[in-house]
Amino acid sequence: MTVVVPAGHVHVDAVAALLEEVDKFYGENEIEPLDVRIRQINEALFGDPPLAYAVLAWNEDVLVGLATYSFLWPAVGLTRSLYLKELYVTEAARTRGVGRLLMNRLVEVAVAHSCSRIEWTTDRNNTGAQRFYEGLGAAQNGHKIFYRIEGHSLGPQSAS
User: Fold this and answer.
1) What percent of the chain has pLDDT over 70?
2) Half-sphere exposure of 23 (CA within 13 A, CB side)
3) The pTM of the whole model exceeds 0.85
4) In terms of CB atoms within 10 Å, which end of the chain has fewer, N or C?
5) Nearest-angstrom CA–CA distance, 97 and 74
6) Which strands form 80-89's sheet, in the order they lie side by side?
7) Domain holding 21: CATH number?
């Protein structure tokens, strides 16, 4: 039986291992050393204030999925939204309802925090994720365009 629980300090090693799998899924070849990943997870999830939150799907004592999220404000009017940053289910646990359990928990979290919506993105070539989200009844929002600044571009920008 799979259970979904909030991430706790005792889960950091398992989360670090799963996030290495996530990085490999997205094609990363250079993975940070374990001690660096553990420090980053602790800072992000358990810092003061936390930068993000996570719920974990466990099948017995095996971590089979996670969803990481943050809150954004403002959303509709002055409400907040829950932003799903990452939903990942191990390959062995896919098509077994784990993703749906994680999404159901996020709905519970959003309602408990008076969010007006849950939002997320997925890569255009991740058709499996798109089929999963459509199966949940979620529709693509064609009104938004996603932008990103990263790497060296994060430095000071000159005024033009």
Assistant:
1) 98
2) 13
3) yes
4) C
5) 32
6) 2-6, 53-59, 62-72, 80-89, 115-120
7) 3.40.630.30
